[in-house]
Amino acid sequence: MPRARTRTALLSAGLALTATLGACTSEPQPPAAATKPAARPDPRPAAEPMLTDTLAKINRTGTAHTTMTGSLGVVGQLTADGAVRYRGPQADLVLDGKTRNTRTERLAVSIVDDVGYLNTPLARPDANKPWLRISDDGADFGSKLLSPALDQLHESVDPRATFSGVEQATRIQSSAPDTVDGRPTTRYELRILTDKAAEIAPDEEQRKRFQRAAANGQRELGYELWLDEQGLPAKFAATTEVAQAGEVSLTSTYRDWGAPVDIALPPEHEVGVFEDLPPMAQPPR
């Protein structure tokens, strides 16, 4: 009996040692892959259906009269009346009003085929040419200095320039009934998600703008849009940081959608440019 118990004990110890050695020499098991938490769904409604409908109605209706108010950055406060004509991707614009900074000055603007014409005592090429020609691709000093602010003014009357192509990246932060000049409207607070917009924007300049915003920590860009009972804009408000101009914050109020508008170019002999820098000026960077 003692020998039997001894053999049993030795056998049990051998089995235990074999199991231990087997565990030590077997291939190590890879750790379980970490499960990436699912992205939290955005609870805010998608703005795409509303924006798609509104932008299509702007294209079909084609014209409107507008009042624009707000800040043109270093240029000063703006108040102007005018008209806008939507042609394909372009928006032709005419404005007549005033700016107020250290003093009040008259301001007239025409934008046709994406070329701007500015008439103000603050930027007059010479006594016989009151209109300054400004274009995005212009090599003259006036275009380099003023085209960013004029672009923002241009976009402020055209919600299509802000939302076309990035409807899927836009969310409705809130909406509520409101009135504009006594007319019943719905006011929408909209947010463009910059990361997603940078991926899907069809225009290269758009993509770069959203990429810069995302890189600077702006996860969303905010806008306000009021729609009337026909689903057309009654008011549109946007604030943007603009090169050479500072913060440009403009609100456009619309009326008389579909009414005839007159948008004319200034006489050619009254149009000039700033080819060189004015004295003491520094080139824009």
UniProtKB/TrEMBL annotation:
<protein>
    <recommendedName>
        <fullName>LppX_LprAFG lipoprotein</fullName>
    </recommendedName>
</protein>
<dbReference type="InterPro" id="IPR029046">
    <property type="entry name" value="LolA/LolB/LppX"/>
</dbReference>
<keyword id="KW-0732">Signal</keyword>
<feature type="compositionally biased region" description="Low complexity">
    <location>
        <begin position="23"/>
        <end position="38"/>
    </location>
</feature>
<feature type="region of interest" description="Disordered">
    <location>
        <begin position="23"/>
        <end position="48"/>
    </location>
</feature>
<feature type="signal peptide">
    <location>
        <begin position="1"/>
        <end position="25"/>
    </location>
</feature>
